[in-house]
Amino acid sequence: MEDQYKIDPLTNERFIPKKINQKFATAANRIKYNNTKATKLNQERAFFDRPCKISHREMKSLHKLDPDKTYHHYFLEGRGVDFSASNHITDTKYGKLPAYYNYALRKIGNTDFYQIIKL
């Protein structure tokens, strides 16, 4: 009989599962547990994700205005693009470039100008 009971990971209450794979006593407990877990993970990643998201937003808005335009390094920094926080390196026809989600920064020759490329 004791094997029929499970312990809810959120409230530590004993309950009899209605399904074999049920882990929580109620759906509300499952939702709260998973939301709390996701919030903690997001807080741990915030120091990195925030600059990437801001950079992505700015690159997206600039690219939408003129996809072929080049921008000076200081202009992009002023808009919030963080050159140290790209979230991956991607292969393009221009070689490997730092990327922020679906946008990449291509440095133009030996200048301080960059082109925003949509991947």
TrEMBL record:
The lineage of its organism: Bacteria, Pseudomonadati, Bacteroidota, Flavobacteriia, Flavobacteriales. It comes from Gaetbulibacter aquiaggeris. This is Uncharacterized protein. It comes from the Bacteria.
